[in-house]
Each structure stands twice: as structure tokens, then as C-alpha cells.
Design goal:
Radius of gyration: 25 Å
Order of helices and strands: HHHHHHHHHHHHHHHHHHHHHH
Strand content: under 5%
Structural class: mainly alpha
Number of strands: 0
Distance between the termini: 73 Å
Helix content: over 70%
Shape: globular
Length: 474
């Protein structure tokens, strides 16, 4: 018999609500993908060229990078995770208004709106996954974070209401941290044990490692363990977009126009793709804490590579009609293969990249490192988005062979270099990458502080007792 547990339900609810900030990315990307194929939108802005379309996508990504690298980590560490997400969400609302009411023919106004959207998403997205990793228990962290990618496909927004206990501990607000933990942990013993581990790890990081302001960047470079983790996450996050998904996400309408003539058919395919994306992402929920992060990424990369090779072969080597058009069976095969690509991508390089990125860094650098690592997705995306339309025009579906090769390279990279992080506590993640155990290293510091406080309290009591004795003798 399944017994309802309100504490576990609250833990999941808090994480799910915070995951909805991924909608800022998912809904916007899907809408603009569809807009590019709209005759009305194209006519409204005087038929933008392929280069201008690439610029629209690129300037949005520039905004993402600016906020993700230079603004979001500082706001998150100074004012808390919730504030960063709120500001990002507000910027997206402003940007939506700018784009909606851009004057006819004024593409620059629309470009400005795209840049502000990028700022808002760059502010909110890195923080959302960090928040979830800090709230969820290590035993379910992977499954909870799998919904981060799922909400990319769902497309709705809600604000959230519990602050990260690890952020509270880093600010010395232990009672606030204790109250947050009580909302998502079942027993007082569990709360106190986890709080102690947080205190020990964060105490060590604050005493022994540089973890504030610009010193964070120095720490990421000087600490061998952090430097290696940072390199791995940079490659994995860039790889997420270079798998081919970045181009499919931004230009699926343009791609399908090469094999379908009906705009209604293309819209239907995009709608089905978004719907299937929700179901396919759910696979991560069932697999990420069973298969682990490493093997899920490996299987995904190989599956994606196979799909890209077959798509390219089917389109380029199949016979065409007398008018040079793609036959209907070939077009349907291409759609099926690209849907199969999404089946491999969503639970692996879609969801699992966010899972592993948000959990491998220690608290003193987590907000900055996740923000910078996740922004390599946008750096890779800006390169692909700027040149893919011309690449597709010049090479056709032969372009997909490039993505197949990249996926093979990603498989080899993960297989030989990335360790498995499943079930490892955030405070003990450093050991996995050759660093020190921050809990053990911080235990002596916390114990020493407690002893000093006890001695001070004892001295104060002794002084009070002496004064009382003198009063009575007088």
C-alpha cells in the first residue's frame, strides 16, 4: 500500500515549481521557431534574409551569455536564488511586450526585444537548476532534475517560495536553513544531520577556498579538481547544442520546408514534436537514477549519431520526383528519424546535461560555475545559429553528417573522461573528482568553533559568578 508522505510531496512540489522557469526558454524558442515560417511575420519585417534570421537568433544568445556569465551568479549569491529567478522572469515579460509591439518594418526593435529575452533567460536558467540540486536529496536528485528539461517542453510559468538551505548556511542564517529543510525532510534528525554536513562543507570552503566575487574565477582556475570539473562541464554543455538539437530547435521549420510544401503540415509536425518531447523527456525520470548520468549520455550520443547519418543518407541518396521534389515516403521517413533523434536526445543530452552540471560543483563556486558552464550552450548555439541557414542552403542534408561526427566525439569524451555522479552527496562530490572531502575537512573547523564558543560562554559565566560572590560578601 502506498502511503502519502506530505514532506516528500512538498519537496517534489517545490522543485517542480522552480523547474517551471525552464519554460522561459522552451516556450520562447518554440514560438520563434514557428514565427520564422510565418508569411505574415516575414512580410511585417520586409522579408528578412537568412543572415538577418541568424542575427535575430544570435543576439538573443548574446543576451543569454551576458546575463549568465556576468550578472546571474552575483545576484544569486548576494540576494538568493529566488531573486535572480524573479528578475529574469520580469525581464522576459518586458521583452515580450517589446517584441509584440515592435513597429512594422523596424527589425531593430524586434532585435532589442530578443536581446532582453536573452538577458532574462540568462539570469533565471542557471539558478533554477542550482536551486533544485540544493533542495533535493541525493537519492532522488537525478529524477527531480529530469523535470528541468521536461518543463522546457511544457511551457508554463509559476513563481516559487522556498529559499535554498545551502544558500542560507553560506550566509550564516542557520535557523532559516533549518526551517527550509523542515519543509522538505521527514524527521528532525534528518534535518540536523544534513544541516551539519552543509555547515562543515561550507565552513571549509569559506575558510580554505576563495569563494566570493571575482575570486571565484581564480578558484576555478587554481584548484585542480574544480578546474577539471569546469572543463568537463564546458565541453558537455557545448556538446548539448552541437548534437544537432540546437539547429533543429531553431530551424526545424526551415528544414521541413525542404521536404514539405504545406505550411499546415510543417506546423503539425512541429506541434507533434513538442508533444512528443514531453513524453520523451519523462524517460529521464525513470532512467537517470537507474542507468546513471554517464551511461545515459553515452547511449544518447550513439543513438543521435545514428539518426543523423541515416537522415542524411535517406534525403541525399533517395530518388526524387520528376520536378526534383522529395517523395512523400522519404519525407515521412525523415520526420520519423528526427523524432527518433529527439527520443534519444531528450532524456540524455537534453535533461541529463543539466542534472550533472548542477551537481558537480562545490557550494563556494556553484552559482558562478553552473552559470558559465551552461552559457557555453549559448556560445555553441550562436555559432551554429549564425551559419546553419547558409550551411543548409549550400550543402543540403549533407550538413547532418557534421552533427553525426560531433555525436561520436561526444560519446568518446564522456566514455573515457566523465565519472558517474549518481547517488553522490553534493558535499562529497569533490572526492569523486580528486579533491578533498569538504565534510571531513570542515568537521574540525565547526567543532573548533563550537569549543571556542563553549569556552567563551564558560568564561562569561565565571565572571558573573565572581561578581555575585563579591556582592554577597559586601
Amino acid at each position: 500500500m502506498v502511503v502519502f508522505n506530505p514532506t516528500k510531496a512538498r519537496e517534489w512540489a517545490v522543485c517542480m515549481v522552480s523547474a517551471t522557469c525552464m519554460v522561459l526558454y522552451g516556450y520562447d524558442a518554440s514560438v520563434f521557431n514557428a514565427v520564422q515560417g510565418s508569411k505574415l511575420w516575414l512580410a511585417y519585417f520586409n522579408e528578412p534574409t537568412a543572415t538577418q534570421i541568424g542575427l535575430i537568433n544570435s543576439i538573443y544568445i548574446v543576451g543569454n551569455i551576458v546575463a549568465g556569465f556576468f550578472i546571474s551568479p552575483f545576484v544569486s549569491n548576494k540576494f538568493g536564488r529566488r531573486v535572480a529567478i524573479f528578475i529574469g522572469s520580469f525581464l522576459v515579460i518586458i521583452a515580450t511586450c517589446v517584441q509584440t509591439w515592435a513597429p512594422r518594418g523596424h527589425l531593430n526593435a524586434f532585435l532589442g526585444g530578443r536581446f532582453i529575452v536573452g538577458l532574462g533567460q540568462g539570469m533565471a536558467l542557471p539558478v533554477g537548476s542550482v536551486y533544485i540540486s540544493e533542495i533535493a536529496r541525493s537519492s532522488v536528485r537525478g529524477r527531480v532534475l529530469s523535470f528541468w528539461q521536461l518543463f522546457y517542453s511544457v511551457g508554463s510559468f509559476i513563481a516559487f517560495w522556498i529559499a535554498s538551505p545551502r544558500w542560507y548556511v553560506s550566509k550564516g542564517k542557520l535557523e532559516h536553513a533549518r526551517r527550509s529543510l523542515r519543509l522538505v525532510r521527514e524527521t528532525e534528525a534528518e534535518v540536523e544531520a544534513e544541516l551539519l554536513e552543509m555547515r562543515e562543507a561550507i565552513e571549509y570552503e569559506q575558510r580554505e577556498l576563495s569563494g566570493s566575487g571575482l575570486q571565484v574565477y581564480k578558484t576555478l582556475w587554481m584548484d585542480k579538481s574544480l578546474r577539471w570539473r569546469f572543463f568537463l562541464m564546458l565541453v558537455i554543455n557545448a556538446g548539448q547544442q552541437l548534437t544537432g538539437q540546437g539547429s533543429l530547435n531553431s530551424y526545424s521549420t526551415i528544414i521541413y520546408k525542404r521536404v514539405f510544401k504545406s505550411a499546415q503540415t510543417i506546423s503539425l509536425i512541429n506541434a507533434l514534436n513538442a508533444s512528443m518531447g514531453i513524453l520523451f523527456t519523462l524517460n529521464c525520470f525513470f532512467l537517470v537514477d537507474r542507468m546513471g548520468r554517464k551511461w545515459l549520455l553515452c547511449v544518447g550520443a550513439i543513438g543521435q549519431a545514428c539518426c543523423m547519418v541515416i537522415v542524411a543518407l535517406v534525403e541525399t541518396q533517395s530518388p526524387t520526383t520528376s520536378t526534383g521534389a522529395t517523395t512523400r515516403p522519404v519525407a515521412i521517413s525523415i520526420v520519423f528519424l528526427l523524432f527518433l533523434f529527439i527520443l534519444f536526445y531528450k532524456p540524455s543530452w537534453g535533461a541529463t546535461v543539466w542534472v550533472i552540471t548542477s551537481e558537480v560543483f562545490s557550494m563556494n563556486v556553484r552559482a558562478h560555475a553552473v552559470g558559465m558552464a551552461s552559457q557555453t550552450q549559448n556560445i555553441a548555439n550562436i555559432i551554429v545559429n549564425q551559419f546553419f541557414p547558409q550551411f543548409l542552403d549550400n550543402c543540403g542534408f549533407y550538413a547532418f553528417f557534421l552533427f553525426a561526427g560531433i555525436n561520436v566525439g561526444l560519446f568518446l569524451f564522456v566514455f573515457f573522461l566523465v565519472p558517474e555522479t549518481r547517488g553522490v552527496k553534493l558535499e562529497e562530490m569533490d572526492v569523486l573528482f580528486g579533491g578533498k572531502n569538504h565534510i571531513n575537512e570542515g568537521a574540525d573547523l565547526v567543532t573548533g568553533e563550537a569549543s571556542e564558543k563553549a569556552e567563551e560562554d564558560g568564561s562569561e559565566k565565571g565572571v558573573v559568578a565572581t561578581i555575585e560572590t563579591v556582592k554577597h560578601s559586601v
